[in-house]
Specification:
The chain is mostly helical and 325 residues long. The chain contains nine helices and two strands.
Length: 325
């Protein structure tokens, strides 16, 4: 899709006859996205509200968790909600300006969330694996990590607004994203930088941190003792890794395939699946990173027995078993 063909960038109501999928498929996608949006708003708003209300939860690592909830809400409102509306209409009705705004907003908040997950992963790695010795996560570290996530995302999502890259319709043509398909050298240079610096590096950091953490937990269990709490922490890390891979790996793989082969074709409805999986992270993030944390659940409306991780008594994620408070 070329940047010098703006007429192709936005669908109109007249395009419904040549829509890539039947009308009923748009309705189904609208319902699915609406469910994701409602779940995300409820879960992430609860996270923010509970943390702000209770001073006991204002610990450094929870700064990053709240930032993750804010970024996920941003993705939900700017992307999920608008996508549900445009799917219900069967075409993208917001015009070229709306496409650019939506594409920028979703990409911006999405990369903030991804970088925040990387910050959390590094914190867990440093605390549990102790590569730097005994290190405590202080408020200044949390603020630096959160600030970096926002600044880094802004730096790499602004260029398409000024001509380096662009935001175009994707999938079934009811949402916008960075233009992965345009073979123009200028656009390709942006996409390669964007993919490496905003997807590949956070992905590698997250996988390395959690796999090393899991290996450390298993090694210490084998050499010392195998407590139930330790085993549950290991399961939690496995859940984190699997959820991350399921939601982000298909989108990254599809994007990479398009980058290296602009003629690569996949049915628009199938191409929409990785996009929707990536957006489900706004739902699984608060469930895994927050509501599996008994410290947070103790101050929320959720029952303490709602997850088998309830025996982990002392706070934020795997940190609890290896840190003296």
């Amino acid at each position: 899709m070329s940047t010098n063909e703006p007429d192709q960038a936005v669908a109109t109501e007249a395009d419904e006859e040549t829509a890539p999928v039947p009308r009923f498929a748009y309705s189904i996608l609208a319902v699915i996205m609406a469910i994701f949006c409602l779940s995300s708003v409820v879960l992430n708003t609860t996270v923010i509200w509970v943390t702000i209300r209770h001073r006991q939860l204002r610990q450094p690592i929870n700064y990053a968790l709240v930032n993750l909830a804010v970024a996920d809400l941003g993705v939900t409102v700017s992307g999920g909600l608008l996508t549900a509306i445009t799917n219900s209409m069967g075409y993208f009705s917001l015009g070229r300006a709306g496409c650019v705004i939506e594409g920028f907003s979703v990409a911006f908040f999405g990369i903030v969330a991804l970088c925040t997950v990387a910050v959390i992963a590094v914190d867990r790695f440093v605390i549990v694996c102790k590569p730097l010795g005994i290190v405590h996560f202080h408020p200044k570290h949390a603020v630096m990590g959160v600030a970096f996530a926002w600044i880094w995302s802004l730096i790499w999502n602004i260029p398409p607004l000024f001509g380096w890259g662009s935001y175009q319709l994707e999938g079934v043509k009811t949402s916008c994203a960075p233009d992965w398909k345009n073979p123009d050298p200028l656009n390709m240079s942006y996409i390669m930088c964007y993919f490496c610096l905003c997807f590949a590096i956070p992905f590698i950091i997250i996988m390395f941190s959690y796999l090393t953490l899991l290996w450390t937990l298993r090694k210490e269990s084998a050499l010392l003792y195998r407590s139930k709490a330790e085993a549950k922490v290991a399961r939690m890390v496995i859940v984190m890794i699997l959820a991350f891979l399921i939601c982000w790996l298909p989108y990254a793989a599809f994007s990479l395939a398009v980058v290296f082969n602009s003629q690569f074709y996949i049915h628009p409805l199938v191409a929409t699946v990785p996009m929707y999986l990536a957006k489900t992270s706004t739902v699984y993030n608060p469930i895994i990173y927050i509501f599996m944390n008994t410290q947070v659940r103790g101050f929320s409306f959720l029952p303490r027995h709602c997850t088998y991780f309830s025996s982990i008594k002392t706070g934020s994620l795997p940190r609890c078993q290896y840190e003296t408070r």
